[in-house]
């Protein structure tokens, strides 16, 4: 008689194979999700940098979207009226960006009012700070009945949040004022790294001070992805080149 030999896998071998295969698949999926989350984080950082650069670009290349037929009072508040463009004592001076929660940026065009007497006293020798403090500043968000563009809200991509870092402490509230000097034409930026100031004449004018010529370091949080990037607006930034991103280990990164 011949002996019949049966081949195959035992139950234990099959279980071991399935267990090892499952671990390999789980490892690949975990690595894939880590890679996706990492890319999303980098996208949110790049997007935030581009958004802040766009604010400087709008100041450098300002445009007047206000139609004819408005009025502008001495608080730089716009409302419906009869004044035509170019005939008022209000001017577009810049952009204001602030946050109170770190979850979004509130952005608006800055309007400046100057009395005819004060305007006549300005000259090319008037310093930028002296000229800017002569103006009453306000934002188009205070307009009433005037169709305007330039006021918006920016939310970082993929649920990222922002925190201002200064002196080792973090703040979810911060302010950035970007204005063009009416005498020299130079763009100046002012930062309050600890407060999200409401856009009113008192707060905006208070920022025109050497005390606020400081950098804005925004730490971008995007889950548990380890070291954070620092989206930095350098002190007294004057153009888009004043906004940069510092990664992990780079000199000047305040977030790690």
Chart the SSEs and their pairings.
Elements: H1 11-60, E1 70-72, E2 78-80, E3 90-99, E4 105-113, H2 116-121, H3 128-134, E5 136-139, E6 152-154, E7 161-166, E8 169-171, E9 174-180, E10 187-192, H4 201-206, E11 216-221, E12 230-233, E13 243-246
Antiparallel strand pairs: 1-2, 3-4, 3-9, 4-5, 4-6, 7-8, 7-11, 9-10, 11-12, 12-13
Essential attributes:
256 residues; alpha+beta; six-stranded antiparallel beta sheet; five-stranded antiparallel beta sheet; 4 helices; 13 strands; 27% helix
Task: Give a short synopsis of this structure.
The protein is an alpha+beta fold and 256 residues long. It has helices spanning 11-60, 116-121, 128-134, 201-206, and strands at 70-72, 78-80, 90-99, 105-113, 136-139, 152-154, 161-166, 169-171, 174-180, 187-192, 216-221, 230-233, 243-246.
Task: Give a structural overview.
The protein has 256 residues and is of the alpha+beta class. The protein has a domain at 91-139 and 150-246. It is 27% helix and 27% strand. It has helices at residues 11-60, 116-121, 128-134, 201-206, and strands spanning 70-72, 78-80, 90-99, 105-113, 136-139, 152-154, 161-166, 169-171, 174-180, 187-192, 216-221, 230-233, 243-246. Strands 3, 4, 5, 6, 9 and 10 form a 6-stranded antiparallel β-sheet that branches. The protein is elongated, with a radius of gyration of 27 Å. The N and C termini lie far apart (79 Å).
């Amino acid at each position: 008689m011949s002996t019949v030999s049966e081949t195959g896998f035992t139950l234990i071998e099959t279980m071991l194979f399935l267990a090892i295969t499952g671990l390999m698949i789980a490892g690949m999926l975990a690595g894939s999700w880590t890679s996706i989350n990492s890319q999303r984080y980098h996208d949110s950082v790049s997007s935030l940098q581009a958004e802040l650069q766009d604010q400087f670009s709008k100041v450098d290349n300002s445009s007047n979207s206000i139609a004819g037929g408005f009025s502008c009072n001495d608080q730089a508040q716009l409302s419906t009226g009869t004044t035509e463009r170019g005939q008022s004592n209000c001017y577009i001076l810049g952009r204001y960006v602030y946050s109170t929660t770190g979850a979004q940026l509130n952005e608006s065009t800055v309007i400046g009012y100057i009395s005819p007497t004060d305007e006549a006293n300005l000259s090319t020798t008037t310093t930028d700070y002296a000229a800017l403090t002569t103006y009453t500043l306000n934002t188009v968000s205070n307009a009433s009945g005037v169709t305007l563009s330039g006021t918006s809200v920016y939310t970082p991509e993929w649920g990222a949040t922002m925190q201002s870092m200064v002196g080792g402490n973090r703040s979810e509230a911060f302010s950035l004022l970007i204005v063009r000097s009416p005498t020299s034409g130079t763009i100046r930026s002012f930062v309050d790294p600890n407060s999200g100031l409401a856009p009113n004449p008192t707060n905006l004018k208070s920022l025109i001070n050497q005390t606020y010529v400081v950098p804005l370091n925004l730490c971008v949080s995007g889950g548990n992805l380890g070291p954070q990037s620092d989206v930095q607006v350098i002190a007294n930034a004057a153009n888009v080149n004043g906004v940069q991103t510092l990664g992990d280990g780079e000199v000047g990164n305040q977030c790690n």
